[in-house]
Amino acid sequence: MFLKNAWYVAAWTSEITRDLRQITVLDEKICIFRTESGDLIGLEDACPHRKLPLSRGRIRGDTVECGYHGLTFDCAGQCVRAPGAGRIPSEARVHAYPLCEKYGLVWIWMGNPALADTADIFDIPNFDDPSWGINRGSAMELECNYLLMCDNLLDPTHVAWVHESSFAAAGTKDTPLRVTKTDEGVVVHRWIMDHEPAPFYKKVICFSGNCDRLQHYEVRYPGHALIRAVFTPAGTGGPDGPLHDDTFIMDSYNFMTPTNAHQTRYYWFQLRNIRPDDAELSAMMSADVQKAFEEDRAVLNEVQKGMTDKRSPHIDLPIDAGPLRFRRQLQAMINEEQQVDRQMAE
Amino acid sequence: MFLKNAWYVAAWTSEITRDLRQITVLDEKICIFRTESGDLIGLEDACPHRKLPLSRGRIRGDTVECGYHGLTFDCAGQCVRAPGAGRIPSEARVHAYPLCEKYGLVWIWMGNPALADTADIFDIPNFDDPSWGINRGSAMELECNYLLMCDNLLDPTHVAWVHESSFAAAGTKDTPLRVTKTDEGVVVHRWIMDHEPAPFYKKVICFSGNCDRLQHYEVRYPGHALIRAVFTPAGTGGPDGPLHDDTFIMDSYNFMTPTNAHQTRYYWFQLRNIRPDDAELSAMMSADVQKAFEEDRAVLNEVQKGMTDKRSPHIDLPIDAGPLRFRRQLQAMINEEQQVDRQMAE
Amino acid sequence: MFLKNAWYVAAWTSEITRDLRQITVLDEKICIFRTESGDLIGLEDACPHRKLPLSRGRIRGDTVECGYHGLTFDCAGQCVRAPGAGRIPSEARVHAYPLCEKYGLVWIWMGNPALADTADIFDIPNFDDPSWGINRGSAMELECNYLLMCDNLLDPTHVAWVHESSFAAAGTKDTPLRVTKTDEGVVVHRWIMDHEPAPFYKKVICFSGNCDRLQHYEVRYPGHALIRAVFTPAGTGGPDGPLHDDTFIMDSYNFMTPTNAHQTRYYWFQLRNIRPDDAELSAMMSADVQKAFEEDRAVLNEVQKGMTDKRSPHIDLPIDAGPLRFRRQLQAMINEEQQVDRQMAE
Description:
The structure is a homotrimer. Chain A is an alpha+beta fold. Chain A folds into 2 domains: 7-119, Rieske [2Fe-2S] iron-sulphur domain (Rieske Iron-sulfur Protein), CATH 2.102.10; 128-332, Naphthalene 1,2-dioxygenase Alpha Subunit, Chain A, domain 1 (Alpha-Beta Complex). Helix content of chain A is 20%, strand content 33%. The two termini of chain A are 21 Å apart. At the A-B interface, loops of A face helix 2 and helix 4 of B.
């Protein structure tokens, strides 16, 4: 089960055009396209007559015509034309999903449209700040439940084994973690003091010698992560001090959209506080990130299979405190949402 | 569930030779071949011993020998030889299906052999009339239940959207339909008066200017269709009048054989009342028909998925009156057949 | 269900190295590798934390480190290191399977390790006898339950139809069979007297003219077969006499390891009492055997499907006496084993 009253990432904005396209979010098929004026429209992708996907039909101005019998739907999902003239049946409508374009992403609201408020979309404060550069993101299909990736993004420890050649460094194995619950999700973080920077970061930070490093791993409901990496010259970091002038910060934004219970579409990009216009740097960092995320994918796809077919109970470790807290609270939110739905249905 | 006491098309006659071949009809596997004198034989394709398909064995004169232990079956399905000599167990027999060759097709009777009467095979009056030409047919696999194709062939309206570049013309969207129930099935028809001929027909009719057009869509139990198209010069058509000398008629014969509940083998050919010996015309029309039927296949394969996984109820429209009537009557026949089977079993 | 307290073939010894490798036996996934000193180790292939297969991790000396969080297991399956230091949870262990190297094969004990005794491994008396030659064996995947291959190897009759061009000869169809139950399994055998040798053997026996032939088909629990073929000059064979000097003997060893309920890994090789060092002869016989076993595979894969989807009951024949006896006794052993397991669990 999924949290329905939430914004999920549906696509990159560049993926949605005047061509009808089918996407699947929370196991629901959606026909997504742009109106003549460029607005985003998302309709339940099944003609109510014989359930042919509307995305197999034709776009006609700002309406969609079914490819079997020409039933035509407007942007609100209402049938406005049906063959054989006569009355259009009142049930001849499809759900219209609230959509919104932000940060180069298409966001979709999967629950009650009356509750959709774009102010609730995940906030990215530095997105438009010209002093920050962007590592162009990408997307990949994971053959696992989205919560396994949420676990992963509340788990700074895994980098020591999964990302040995990129994000791992002394201290990533054992430095204790701090877990904090916020109104929006869970944060797991730690400062690792006075060690040699990890290979991925060593190439980009603008000071030499050892560093102090913050790993800030945060996932917000329903499944959006901010992974903040901070590197300062050794001796200048830590929770209390003001940031040193040479501080390097990378904010990695990660959005997990459940395709269904065992598949996830995973989107990401990063913002960095240095050399905003350095395209070569952006390209290098994007490529390194993609490679590291492929390492996660390989592991998580196997974990999905292993947890599904397990022959004996699994065990939890202290490093799982953050992920388990996130799962518990999210499940409570899902339960509550379904309780309200049942009340309203009665 | 299927109607068992009925003739279905099993193959083109040219497909069946002295090589053992497996076909699947109504989810039953059948070993089909010809005797030395060319007669058609169809046996249940599973040796009663260890269920190896007989079609994996060897033909020996007019018997079939299992490829595992040599159990040998005659054309009536009786085991006539088993290894280790001794008595042949009385249960060592397989079902033998009544078969018949007609119209270049192999017909198979799937029910009680005692009820098989070749006089009940679908009638094609003009098949041997030398003044009619034939558009050589073909066959394709549909990934859908055969009833979805029956629906399609009782639905003249779909041509306006599915066959835009071939069969569609003014009036195919909206001209009202007439539904008639016959003893053998259902007919849906309409005359569309005084309009420009559809592209497919414009190339072959022998008059110019506008036309009157009859769409006669008929499906007979269990799943055989005659689609008659009549084109006359505008002003000469309609239900009452005698046919004009320039009238063009094409009878499209369509046979839907359920492979199982979600797959269908679909056979067809056409007869036309013009230029019977024009091979080039035949080839062109066959190619155009094949292309149009691929359009149906693409839609129906998606409808099968859409109706199977639907998230909300589907709705029916007035244009569905014919298909629904056909389904209701066929279901009544199936229920009755099963009731008799249960009575006999008691 | 499978017999657990038994030795199964897990691999050819040459297949297991210092690279972690996953195999599946009795539907259990096992991480198999060699220690630095070359000993064989087999561990349950799922880290108890998040069930990532250990075979996706890294070998570190004689321990295996999980690729997700570095949990490290020794050769007994005990976790000896976990991230975040602290106490290692007592449940952090995986099953370690007893393994043994014999006859070029890796043997694995799937039941209670306390009961594993390498003296119980299938005995091959002539394996190290320099006067016997070996036809190098191979392995193949069967898409069927292993018992179908056990049936096949207690069934000398099938060679007449399945191996027409290799093992079949006059008498293989009809000569009566003798069935014997031993402490270890079942033997089906017969002498076929005074006939022309089968093609496969004709090429290798060192006498000319007709032969007397013993087919000794023996399968021992849980699924290991010895197929002994004896050829003597006609008139010198039979159950009672001493063996003629020109007697040719081939012992075919066959080991069926259930991958799961519908897949089997099938291993084999042969010993022969002639020309032990003739590499060309060995290669020719190996190739012929492989070809014949492919014939079995084709049949058994189809029998698996036929028996699984059968529409009517199958029947047994007198030739099935041996296979049925083997299955009955094996099932009794499995039932007894499970009964003890339940008793111990109470």
